[in-house]
Amino acid sequence: MVAANTSGKQIVVRIKRGEPGKAAYWEEYAVPHKPGLNVISCLMEIQRNPVTRDGKTTTPVAWDQACLEEVCGSCTMYVNGKIRQACTALIDKLEQPVVLEPMTKFPLVRDLVVNRQRMFENLKRVKAWIPIDGTYDLGPGPRESPIDQQQEYVMSTCMTCGCCVESCPQVNARSEFVGPAILNQVRRFNMHPTGKLNAHERTRALMGEGGVHECGKAQNCVRVCPKEIPLTSSIAVVQRAAIKQAIKDYFSGGDEIVGGAGPG
C-alpha cells in the first residue's frame, strides 16, 4: 500500500498524446509525491483526475498494463527517452519532469498504446511452438541436459514486449525484418528435443525477405532487453543454422530434410 503524500512535493509528468491521423501534442500533469511510486501509479493518478498542470480538464490518458511485475510486456514505452517497462520505472530514481512517449516502430492506437501485432504475426511465420496435435501419445519425450534447460529457460523469459524491436535500426518502414525477439524464439524451439523435428521449417522461414540475414549487428537489442536475454548469441546461432540449411537444400535439390538445421 502506497503511503499518503505528507511532504507536499509534486511529480511533474509530461506525456506525448495523440491518435492515428492527428498531430501529436504534449500535456503536463502534477501528481502528488508518495514513496514507492512507479510510472503506472502516476498514470493511474492522472486517470482518476485528468486535469493538466495548468488547470485544464482533459481526457484520461490511454496506456497498456497487466501484470505490473515485468512479465507481460504490455506497458512498454519511452520513459525519459529510454525504452523500458513502465511498471518497473520507479519515480524516485527518475529525473523530472518524467517524460512518457509511445513506441515508434508499431502503429499508434492512442496516446501510449501501440499495436504490437507485427511481432505476433512474425511468431506465426516462424512457427514458434512445438507442433503437438494431441491425436496420439507422444510418450515421455527425449531427455534434455541441464545445460540446455538452463539456456532455454533464459530464452523463454521473453515477454514479446517490443523493446528489442523498438531499439533495432533494421526494423523500420522500409524493412520487413522480423526482429531479435523472433530470432531468439526460433533458437529456443530449435533446441527443444521435439522442436528439432521441425527446425528446418523455422529456419527456412528466416531465409527470405525479413529474415536473419537482415540483422545489422547494431547490438542495441541486447542492451535494452529487460530480461537480459543473450539476443546477439541467439541471432548468431540462427544465422549459422540458416547457412547450414541453405547448403543442405542446395545439395538435396530443396527436398525437405527431417530434423533440419539444429542450433549448433
If you had to describe this structure to a student in words, what would you say it looks like?
By secondary structure, the chain is of the alpha+beta class. It has two domains: 10-114, Beta-grasp domain (Ubiquitin-like (UB roll)); 117-252, Fumarate Reductase Iron-sulfur Protein, Chain B, domain 2 (Orthogonal Bundle), CATH 1.10.1060. 30% of the residues lie in helices and 12% in strands. The strands form two sheets. Strands 2-1-5-3-4 form a five-stranded mixed sheet. Strands 6-7 form a two-stranded antiparallel sheet. Strand 6 and strand 7 form a beta hairpin. Helix 3 (146-156) packs antiparallel against helix 5 (180-191) and helix 5 (180-191) crosses helix 8 (231-252). It is elongated and about 70 Å long.
Strand order of the largest sheet: 2-1-5-3-4
Rg over CA atoms: 22 Å
CATH C-level class of the largest domain: Mainly Alpha
Which segments are poorly predicted (pLDDT under 50) over 5 or more consecutive residues?
257-264
Number of strands: 7
Mean pLDDT metric: 91
Number of helices: 8
> Helical content, roughly?
25-40%
Q: Approximately how much beta-strand content do the residues carry? A: 5-15%
